[in-house]
Amino acid sequence: MVNIGNSWDSLLKAEFEKEYYAKLRVFLKQEYVYSGKRIFPHMNNIFNAFKYTDYHDVKAVILGQDPYHGEGQAHGLCFSVEKGTPAPPSLQNIFKELKTDLGIDAPSHGCLTDWAKNGVLLLNSVLTVRESLAGSHRGRGWEIFTDSVIELLNAREKPMVFLLWGNYAKAKASIINTDRHLVLTAAHPSPLSAYNGFFGCRHFSKANQFLGERAIDWRIGE
Hints:
This protein has helices at 8-16, 19-34, 48-52, 89-102, 113-117, 142-155, 167-170, 203-211; strands spanning 39-40, 60-64, 120-124, 129-130, 161-165, 182-186. It is of the alpha/beta class.
């Protein structure tokens, strides 16, 4: 069974016992153990977003689609790559906007664990993928699971910020209570769309303005 090690365990217990998740678990065992294919992230890192950011500590949610599908990239946090792996183009653009918005220089790596430890839930909608095959684990149950996570967050009384970049993420706005939480939407940071409204969105400063004394430290250490 999944052991996250914080309050997510009790919050997600019922989800892990549902029929769809049992089927997803069978599929993942086949993929990781018997398929002969490489699956990312490593099975021990699938739930890293939850391990790094306890439910009660979430200040902001950044929603991605599915993990990077290249060697040394995905490690359970959306948009983040392991140290030693060059930052992909979308992440480079995120760092550019961070510099423009808050004057924070890009780190020498693309690992966003500092954000996760500071209250940013870096959640992909689909948590696993086959090597070199984007979207290969979509439609297997992960979307049901992560929609339930968003609903749990939405139900929390303490306000948070949802940063929804790109049409896929924006579609989740309909299940978020904007009377309580702040929803910020923009184009995806991909080079194909970043100039269509991601650059200049100033989401980092807007999130901190909303959070007030709970503002996020967006700096990333070396």
